[in-house]
Structures are given as structure tokens and as C-alpha cells.
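Task: fold both queries, return C-alpha cells.
Query 1:
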Amino acid sequence: MSKAQKVLVAGAWRDSQASGTFEPDNPTTRQATGERYPVSNEAEVLEAIEAAALASEELRAFYPEGVARFLETYADRIEANADEIVSMAATESGLPAPTRLAAIELPRTTGQLRQAARAARTGSWCLPTIDTASNIRSLYQALEGGVAVFGPNNFPLAFNSVSGGDFAAAIGAGCPVIGKANSSHPGTSRLLAEEALEALKAMGLPPATVQLIYRTDHAVGAKLVSHARIGATGYTGSRSAGLTLKATADAAGKPIYLELSSINPVYILPGALQERGESLADDFSTSCLLGAGQFCTNPGIVVLLKGDTTDSFIQQVKERFEAAPVGTLLARGVETGLSHSVATLQQAGAELLTGGQAGAGKGFSFSNTLLHVTGATFLQNPEALQTEAFGNESLFIVADDVDQACAVARHFEGNLTGCIYSATAGTDDDAYNRIAPLLRRKVGRLLNDKMPTGVAVVPSMNHGGPYPATGHPGFTAVGIPASLRRFGMLSCYDNVRDDRLPAELRNKNPGGVARLVDGVWSTGDVPA
């Protein structure tokens, strides 16, 4: 039996105080990769928490320039070692190395790190606010203590616990990170953490700014998110595990930001089908099956109005699903979970149109699956029929009329995205004007005539939404500088001398930071 890999705790790689070990699988072969990883015990996690708390104090002296330079250096090192990192990620995830990991996800990862560096350096996330009459000033600053980051299985680089969006946001705000690797890609996390530690050393930052453990049991995970010395937690993963952690963190008064589940409803109105039904069948099939459907913005429900054009559209999509190759799923648990979810939907009244079988492709897999339900049946059992089927599956809801389509929208849970396709000639405008206000309050991002799968990493992006899409509708996991504010506290200074204030709140503003001064945004100086 191979020796377990080392953990990164308190600035050094070392043998774990393990309570057990595990082996990840190669999804394409359904076999273990041959590497063993430790399950950290409580003592090890507590040591990491204390090391992060100390690093939190030390990082203040390096913020913002030192932190920004670390993030940029780390991004450079990831790019310099891209071949090894991408190869490991492909082995552990089954995702295509050249077209997905190297061409799309790795550039997104390094781009996020550099955006976070820019936000730290410019102070664009801090929202400095100055009232001259009272001499009260405020801004966002880093939370005290480390941030625990739990990464998901579907983005081994761009959402990784030690390189992804939550990581970049926490470090960019000035918080150390304790990364809890996803069990599906621990080797990828290890390679990334190695580069992070070397970048920390090169920049002279506290080495415990980045730490990595691979797995804990449930009780130790609860200790991590609720400890008095932890600042906050960022979590992306299953709803059940996330809510368990949230209950513990909430009881301790600790912030925890969750991305949990989303079915991303898409409305396709009759005029749009008449205008461009064939192209919509192509667009939807591509979006739903991309990456074997393993995106948090995968369109899991499509709402249509009954009629001949709808029947034709459903048949076109069915043919495309049956003709398309079956992708590899990320892990055994994804295959099992998808099987269970499809069965749950069928038990709730959904009719299987095609697919529904596990093991239909290479490695962990599930046949491309479509289900159908009437609007009336959905309204009788909306909770069960919104079961998330994470993977290459979608459910058609065929409503009798616009009234019923609106009733369906009222029963949707919170989602990351929602989309409405309508006729360019205006024939769907009345229906759009009734549906859109209802859908708008159910989703973080509303789209028109565009599938939801892509998530642009731009400042205006909201990758969030009402529960259960996330644990809080007011925050985003993607979109810098806003995502950094999850890991900041609003710090107020009352009658503090100018030379004792943070640079962003002083009268002089040589960096030209945008500040709200007496109710007006300004990049200039404040008169003494």
C-alpha cells in the first residue's frame, strides 16, 4: 500500500495526523488512481486554524501590495507548470485536457487570481465612505482569522479550494485560506498548493497564508467552520452537506457562503419556437450536454406552452440527445446521484422520453436523459419535480397556457439563473411581460435568448441567487470586486486622526480610489 500524501499545515508539507485514508478514482477507468490521501483529525485541523489566525495578523503588514504580488506570482507559477497540473486534473476528473482544462479552465483560474490582485491593489472592493461633517469614515477590511474553502468536484482548477474563485476572493481581501480539497481531485489540489507555497516564499508572505487538508469526518468539518478563530467559510457542493455545515456555523455566529443547487429554468415561448425552433433545439442540446451536464448553470428545466410547435421541438431535442455521445461523469457518486434523481422525478410523475440508464458511456456515465411532465402535474408536486439531477438530464414542463406557465414560475425555488426565449417580432411580448417579473425574483441572473451555461468572469456577474441556489441572495461567488466583500467586515472610524486611518480613508487620495464623500462619488482629495 502506498504512503499517504502530505498535508500543508502551518507553512510546511508534513505527514498527516490522519484518522484514515482514501483513494480517488479515475472516472474514465472506474479504477483508483493509486494515490492515497489522509483524513485529517481534529488536532490537525485545530492547528491549521491557529496558524491561519496568526497569519491573518501578519498579513496586515503586507496588504495590499504584497498580497497582490503573491496572487500574480502564483498565477505565473500555475501557467509555468500547466502541463503537470492539467494532466493530473484530467486523470482525476475525466474532463478533456486540451479543450476544457488547458484552453478554458486554467486561463479562467489565473485570470481570477490576477483580477483579485488588481482589486486588492486598487481598493475597488472596499467601498470607502467619508462623511466630513461628522468625521466618520468606513470601508471593508479583511475578517479576522482564516477562511475555510470547500471546493466542488466539477471545476478542479477554477473553483479549487486553493486556486479558485473563493480562494482568490479571500486572499484578495487579505484573509489566509485553509483549503479543504474535494475528494475527487486531491492530487490537483496538492500540485496547486505546492505552487502557492513557493509563491508565498518568494514574496516573503506568512507561509500559513495557504494551507491544505484533503478530507475530514463530519464532526471535524463542523469544528472547522464553527471555530472561534475562523473568519468565514466558502462552500460549493451538495445541498445536504452544505446545510449541515451551515447549521453548525450559524449556531456559532460564523459567516458561511454556500453554493448548493440550481435547476436553471428556461422558458421558450411559442413565437421563438416558430421563428427558430431548429436552432433552439441545437442550442439547448449543446448547453445541456456540455461537460456531461456537470455545470451548476446547466438548464435542468424547460417550460413550454402546449402545441404542435412544442411537440416538434421536444422530438427534435430527443433525437439530438439520442445521437449525441454520452460523456464521462466526474465520480462514482455523480453517477449514483443522477440515477437516484431521475428515479425520484419519475416517481413524482415525470415521463421518461429517452435515456435513464447508468453506465451508458465510458467510465462513470449516464445516458443522455430527457423527461416530460404537464404543467398540471408539476403544480401538484413541485418540490419533488424540482429535484436536481446533476448531469446530462433535463425535464420539459408543458403548460396549458401563460397562466399556468406563470403558476409554475411562482413555485420555483431559488436558482442561479433563469432564461426566457421570445420572438424577435414581438409576438411573445405579452407573455414575456407576465413571466419575467415572476422569474426575476427567483434567480440571481436573468437571461434573454441565451443559454445559461457560461459564467463570464466580469465585475458585473452575479453567480448567486435565492436559496437553495446559495445560502444568501446578496452575495456572488463570481464577479470581482463584489465577491471579495463576503470575506470583509465593515470597519468604521470615528474622529480618528488622518495619519492613523487606512490609506483609502485619508484626506489625500493619490491612488485615485473611488470614494463616497458626503454622498458623492469622488476620486479626488478631501479638503483637510
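Query 1 returned. Query 2:
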Amino acid sequence: MRLKKWFKAIALKDRSIDIARASKWALTFVVIGIIAGLGSIVFHYLCQLGLHYFMDFIAGYRPPSPAGEHHLLTPTNTPFSRYTLLLLPAFGGILSGWLVYTFAPEAEGHGTDAAIDAYHTKGGFIRGRVPIIKTIASAITLTTGGSGGREGPIAQIGAGFGSFLATKLKLSDRQRRIMMAAGIGAGVGSIFRAPLAGALFAAEVLYRDPEFESEVIIPAGISSVVAYCLYCLVFGWGSLFESPDFLFRNPLELGPYIILAFVLVGTGILYIKLFYGVTSLFKSFKIPNHIKPAIGGLCTGIVGFFLPQTLAFGYGFAQQAINNELTIPFLLLLAFGKILTTSFSIGSGGSGGVFGPSIVIGGAIGGAVGKLFHQIMPGIVTEPGAFVIVGMAGFFTAVSNTPISTIIFVSEMTNSYHLLLPSLLVCSLSYLAAQKWTIYQKQVKRKIDSPAHAGEFFVDILQTIKVKDLMHIVKKVELIPQDMTFLDFKKYFSKTKQHYFPVMDQNERLIGIFSSTDIRSVLFSREIEHLVVMKDIGTSDIIVATQSDDLNTVLQKFTTKNIDSLPVVKDDDHQILIGMLNRREVISFYNQQIQKMKNKAKR
């Protein structure tokens, strides 16, 4: 009875330790969510103030807002000035360029790529000043007319705090990576009002293949929910966009959706190539880095002079496209103009994200294709606005290799879940057709290619193989009696190819071992060779392997004292020798297993 109570007490103690550890981690991710949510609030306020004083007050440009957002300040009566709009992005480029390249050069471009790189190659470490500089620089770039998204800076705010907190708590690189990724999910999920998608995005965007960083999903989910709730308490609940209750009812409509997928892929490849072509061009300029965003801003302003709808965020035009309020020419000019302004604004070294512009571009292309098919076959394509939503998801999938999180993203952002079937089809086709290209160059192909997981898969495979699986290469060897003289052993040694010699007692139990190297000191001392017995030469500190040991453990034992052969003994009695296991044969067996796995994977 006492024993039963003792075991119960131990079990309760272990459970309380697990609960305490889980509570501590949950609290940590709640804190990350709070900071990311506050960061989203501050960044949104900065963007609203910037749009009011730069775009509205100075240039008289007041682009529409999505249904889920409203102006925080009353619009001014400043008349619209194209010439002011021409120069305003260059002004913003000068300010943001000086800020970034003076204080945090790694804050240039779209911040999500920097966060991905930190996850894979820097142990999740991000300098503390980067999120602050990124926030201010992005707000300046985007509110002076630069084309970009909000997810890049807000991802770095959350990621930066997660990294900072892990560093202060002196946690491991793995824990820092998880906390950094949780910050990404919280930031993106809150500012786009898509908490589930934010968590999935943080786990999926790290890789080009359809893989998730599974250990990130739950922490990112906790942080994302907290950040989302905090953000919505300030700016109101609901989705970023509002859409009619689109329904998918006609399977024939899948034909136009398939064509849409390939149009989105072509546009996506153009976007990526132009974006990085502009990036390479600006990097080749032999001028101070902080001047480059100003030149990019001027190019953006020139496009904006003719197509002002391509400046700043553009979410309001995506909302109008959902409501079927825009013409086909306007939608096409919006899409291709947005590709140009985003490439100039961010590719020149300006600060901002690429998800936001992708949503606008994809929505515009989807709207144009939807309206075209509505004119051709109005009985099948009844709602062109549905193609806007599916176009958003398909286009970002094509440029980012994140099909699952993107489907959820667009569904949450538009509050439209009835288009999951065509979204799944279009995103799947877009992913398969555009898999070779990505806007996130720091993505790695698979987990096995990530420096963050270096060595893990090697160990995982080794741990699945036990010594009992190697019994066919365990060799029977002769046991050397402990009282055998060295003189007698010399006669035996001259006739054997054996290199390791287990020593046994009178009951044939293992008591020592020596190698051919160990006998050198006696080999040429003939005066003592009849006096020395083999028990004196062998070591009693034997490193053995049991049948239940895995290959990882065995290889560690081989390297402990740089030995080439291990005695294999019984699990329950380490003095009963089964045979000897050779290091070369173990490595050869491992290579054979790997080759079998590769061949199986190819079938």
C-alpha cells in the first residue's frame, strides 16, 4: 500500500512539473502576443497619421479604405495634386533610406525574408533595434506613397520581441527560434485580422516545399490569438474586407478557375522576376545606399503620376473589386502598375512587406478574369467578385509557396468561407506550376536543408536502427583465457586476423579486452613474455554495446576512445559476450539503409 502511494506521489509530482512548465511557456507566448498586438496598434496608428498628413494634407490624395478599416482623422479639403504625388515617394525614400542604412541596414526590403533568414541561420537572433527602425521606416515608406504591405514590419516587431525575450531568459537557439516564429504569427495574424492564418503562415513560410514547422504552430497560435484580440479591442472586430455571401454551386465554373490559376502563375513569375531584377539593378548602382530608396521612390512617383491607385496600400481598391465596382482596364492597370511600384519601392531598399501588394495584385487579376468570363458565360460565372477572392489566394500562393496558410488567410480576411473549394483548386495548381519561384529568397527547400535542423535527421535515422538489427554483421571471435601467457598468445596471434581480443575468466565471462596495438610494449621484450599473462594486458574498463542500443549510441561509443570494434553483450548480463561489432561495417550498413530509403522514396 505504501509503495502504491509512493508511486502515486511521484506521478503527481511529475504531472505538476509538466503543468508548471506548460504554464510558464504559455505565459511566455501570451506576453509575445501582447507585445505584437501593441506593435500592430502602434504601427496602424503611424500608418493612419502618415496617410492623413502626407497623402491627404500635402497631396490631396484620399484612396478608399477596405470595409474593415476607417479613417481615424477627418479627411482634409486639400485639392488633389499629381505633381506633389510625383515627388512625395522620393521624399519618403530619402527619410526611410537614411534611417535604415544609418541604424539597421538589415531592416531594408521586406522584413519577412529577414525573419526567415534569422530562423534558419542565426538561431532566431534579431538585433533589438531592428523592429523599431523597421516600424518607423516602413510607416514613412508606405504613407508617402510607396507600395508595400504591413506584414513585413509587423512580422519583425513580433519576431524581434520574441528573439529579445528568449535572449534575456538565456534560452537555447531552438527555443529562441520558436519564440521568434510565434512573434511573426502574432504580428501578421493581428494586423490582418486573421489569427489562425497568422499561426499557420509562421510555420509554413519557412520552407519552399509544403512543410510546416510543427513545433511553431501551437506557440504561434497562442500569441496570434492574444495579439488579434488586443488589436480588435482598439480598432473593432470583424474582417479586413467585407464580401457578399459568394457560393460555389456549379462545377462548370472550375474551368474558368483553372484558367485563372495559370494567369496568376504567369503574373506571379513576372512579379518575382521584375522585383528581383529591380533589386539587382539598384544593388549594382555605385552610389550611397541611403540614396537608392529616394531614386526608387521617384520611379514609384512617376508611375503614380499616371496611376495613383497603385500607390500606398491599395486595399480599398481590392474591396471595390470584390464589390464589382471596377472595370477590366482599371483592374489590369492596377495589377501591373502595382507590380512596378512595389518593385521600385521595396526593391530599391525601401521598407515594407510584399504580402499586401500581392493581395491587391491577385485580387485585381482575379477580378479582371472573373469579369471577362462573366461577359462570355454569364450563366456559369455569375459573380466576378468571387474571382477576386480566389485570385488573392492563388496569386500569393504562386509567389510565396504557402498554399495552406494563404487559403485560410484570404478566407479570414474576407470573411468568406464558401469559396474554399475553388480556392483549394487554384492554390494547388498555382503552387505546382510556380514551385521553382518565390518572393521569399531566404526560404529553404525542406527541413533537411535548414541549418537550424542540421544533424537532426541523421540522428533520427540512427536512433531507429538497433544493434539487434545488425546481428548478421556481429562476428564471433575467440576468447582469450585470462591466464594465457604472452608467449602462448604470440603463437595464436601469428595465425589470426583478429584485431580485438576479449579476455575471459574460467567461467568464460568477459573480464577485459585488448587490441593488437596494446601488445606492442611486450612484443619485443622476450625476457618477460613467459611471465606476462593476458589478463595483465587487457583493460577491465570495457566499452560494450547491447542488443537494445541504437546506432547513434553505438557510434558515440566508437568515437569515445576512437576504437574500431565493440563487444556486443547481453542486455541483462554484460559479461556474456555475443560477438564483436566493427565500425566500418556499421557505417556500411547505415549507408545501405539510407540508399534503400532513397530508392523507396523514388517509387
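Both queries returned. Flag for query 2: Residues 2-58 form the longest helix (57 residues).
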